[in-house]
Amino acid sequence: MNQIEVKKAEGKLGVLVVGLGAVSSTFMTGVLMTRKGLAKPVGSMTQYDVMRVGEGADKKYLKYNQIVPITDLNDIVFGAWDVYPANAFESAMNAEVLKEKDILPVKDELEKIKPMKAAFDHNYAKRLDGDNVKDCKTRWDMVQELKKDIRDFKEANGCARIVVLWAASTEVYVPVNEKVHYKLADLEAAMKADDRENIAPSMCYAYAALTEGAPFIMGAPNTTVDIPAMWELAEKTKMPIAGKDFKTGQTLVKSGFAPIIGVRCLGLAGWFSTNILGNRDGLVLDEPANFRTKEVSKLSTLESILVAEKQPDLYTDYYHKVRINYYPPRNDNKEGWDNIDIFGWMGYPMQIKINFLCRDSILAAPLCLDLVLLSDLAARCGRYGIQSFLSFFLKSPMHDYTKNEIPVNNLFEQYVMLKNAIREMGGYKADQLID
After folding, report:
1. Of the candidates 153, 19, 136, which has an alpha carbon nearest to the alpha carbon of residue 84?
2. Are residues 372 and 217 in contact, defined by beta-carbon separation less than 8 angstroms?
3. pTM over 0.90
4. Is 244 exposed, middle or buried (0-12, 13-18, 19+ CB in 10 A)?
5. Whole domain around residue 262: which residue ranges?
6. Which helix (H) or strand (E) holds 419?
């Protein structure tokens, strides 16, 4: 197989994160600590995973950076936008995810990461009341100011490339509106007309990033880039997009465990999932309109793995419920509890219970790193539009629903997709084996 031409990872990579809360401050601190040799980036596929390339006598196991040119952690420069003015050190301390001893060694570097004013609309996150926000008259003004932020950051920090990552709160649910969201011209017209109902602030970030030549990653369940108009923009600008929603705790379990039920041809009667968490994300999701956005992404996982059309005896009319409860004492240490009612031979019922006591930001930080590095790789490889191979990291994988395309939610199928994309970019043959 001929190797695809991949540009080398030369120069600095600017990583601009929307939201400087628990997730992003943990991500940044971990990268900076790893650079100093004071921590290990556990959970990161790009830093740890190995895959087989070649067959027979040519078989070997390599890390990602031995197959394709991945940006070195020392070449990353961080920036952010946030509604609160706290710098990355203050944010990391306030979040109380990491111990002080794991933050102080990189205090000086974190203090230099001061958030730019956010493009913000209080109606999209009513539980947030920060005053570090832009004074924009229209959505189009938001776009122009964000574009300038990206250009200024790139120049000030001598960056060769930029990636923009949304790690901010979940916005209120924006239903897809064909009159606004299907064609790029209609989307731009709505921005200029200041259509605040159909144009979320996150869409302004995505539009600004793509038009400034930066890949965009949606780490929340927002509608943002999951619309045909943004796909058109990604095609036009030749930029990669990925989303939506980091696959951290409960959905990671669901996408890995549901295939066990499916491959053993066991039946499913019901799957009840509930979560308690207390960080800023939990506070925002306590608002019903914001929870609706998250609910849609969480519910979609199971339905594409255990499909009634394929096995009507086993997966017709099962009950699937998802709950998220704001519980401040738990802070960032969320708990996901699943009760699964299955049935087996001759229809006899059985139960499975999973209790995942996880740390949200500790699980999300390596996803941020991998999504940033692999989106940058995709851009250097000339890949653009929806990056399906990044579904492995995301809760509700983007897909072309206008053509009734079914997303792949099975974790093991996603893993094969991820590895084959790396193989392809490295000039190796695709392989369907997990090995």
Report:
1. 19
2. yes
3. yes
4. buried
5. 250-357
6. helix 411-426
